[in-house]
Amino acid sequence: MAEPEREQRPLLEVEQSVTSIPEDHEATCWGCGLRLVFAGYSPIYKCGWCGAITQSNQTTRKPDSVWFSHWRRVRDRFFVTVLILFMLFVICGGVWAVYPIVFKISNFCGIFHCMVTAVLAVFTITSYCLASSKSAGAPTNVRWGSYPLVGKRDLENYTFCTYCNKPKPPRAHHCRSCKMCVVDMDHHCPFIGNCVGASNHQVFVIFLISVVISCSYAAGMTIYASYQIWPSVDFPNLASSRDSMSFWKIWLEIITTVAGSAFFLSARGLVLVYLAFASLSVNAGIGVLLCQQLSYIYEGNTYLNHLSSPNALHGERGLHNIIRFFGCPYPISRVLLRYSNAGKLQDNSGSKLL
Predict the structure, then answer these.
(1) Residue 272: how many CA atoms within 13 Å on its side-chain side?
(2) How far apart are CA 272 and CA 93, in angstroms?
């Protein structure tokens, strides 16, 4: 009788170690369809087979209303039209207002100015058309929903888009204006009427660089041309009572006198003044945006990822991110990477000494 009792003890221990799992802790993976069992409740879980991430409280969202989609479409078309008209006005107005003054210097200066203007205009318009017409980067179609079709780690860190009802890869976001998910989406730019993503991000940054260079050249030429045709200005009050006037009164007298002389400018002069202020303003705004874009590229990040997780590390920071982004030739990239590695070694040696 003792031996049967000994054989039954392990069975009793196994029966006592089995615990019932509540149904609330069971879920189905959207990626492979497998049933997942958890020891505790979690609003977000990851499948151990396919690697897909699922939110338990995620529901399918309703499509945007017709008025909302129409408003966004009209907004994008309005900004695109304004930008195209502004670029054409700067190019045509700048050539019309500047070329007589430049040709007065010499024919070589006039021809050189026309050639530089043509190159910058073609480069800027071409990069703009590519950034606005090129697809921002749609995700590739992957198999999902059934265990036999989905292999191990096929959907690693994928999430489910409730707008498209499709898998969404990592670093991808859904754009409600374009009505699609965009890989490595940076933002939706209404001035190009398109999203900035993995496929057109490089062209978009090149467009920003061309705008900064073009506006800098336009501002310099229009300021020089305005100075050449500006009416003569006299400061009688400064000549008589300059010693008794304060610093601010002197500046106020200069500004009011120069502004008053602007009423005697011709139509060509007024166009030059407007182009100078417009070029400087656009150059300042686009310059800030360009610096922001380059800083995110240096960090290996995008604008939307920075907003969603500002403290998270999305990759190694360094100059190699910018080199890979622009696709620099091998000799140039080798020199830049050597310079970057030398700087890192100096920083590390300095930190060790401290």
Answers:
(1) 24
(2) 8
CB 198 within 8 A of CB 169: no
- Name the phi and psi angles at 195, rounded to 5: -80, 155
How many CB atoms are closer than 10 A to CB 188? Answer: 21
Contact 183, 69 (CB under 8 A): no
Q: Which pLDDT score, from 0 to 100, does residue 350 have?
A: 45
Quote the tokens at residue 307: 């907003």
Q: Is 136 exposed, middle or buried (0-12, 13-18, 19+ CB in 10 A)?
A: buried
Q: What is the pLDDT of residue 27?
A: 79
CA distance 5 to 100: 112
- pLDDT, residue 290, reads 96
Of residues 50, 181, 189, 215, which has the active-site annotation?
189
In angstroms, the CA 140 to CA 199 distance is 13
For residue 354, which amino acid is it?
L
Confidence of residue 148 (pLDDT cuts 50, 70, 90): confident
DSSP bridge partners of 160: 167
Residues facing residue 54 across a β-bridge:
45
Task: Kindly state the tokens that stand for 100.
Answer: 């007589």
Q: How far is the C-alpha of 103 from the C-alpha of 117, rounded, in Å?
A: 14
Question: By the 8 A CB rule, do 56 and 43 touch?
Answer: yes
Query: What residues pair up with 172 in beta bridges, in sequence order?
Result: 183
Q: How far apart are the C-alpha atoms of 36 and 148, rounded to whole Å?
A: 16
CA distance linking residue 98 with residue 103, whole number of Å: 9
First and final CA of the chain: distance in angstroms?
Answer: 77
Residue type, 97: A
Residue type, 177: S
- In the structure encoding, which two tokens stand for residue 305, read together? 């990822």
Is 32 a residue of the active site?
Answer: no
Strand partners, 182: 173
Q: Which residues 6+ apart lie within 8 Å of 202 measured at CB?
A: 325, 326, 327
- How far CA 329 is from CA of 193, 321, 326, 333, in Å, comes to 31, 14, 9, 6
Residue 46 pairs in a beta bridge with 53
Supply 79's token pair.
């900004």
186 or 9: which leads in pLDDT: 186
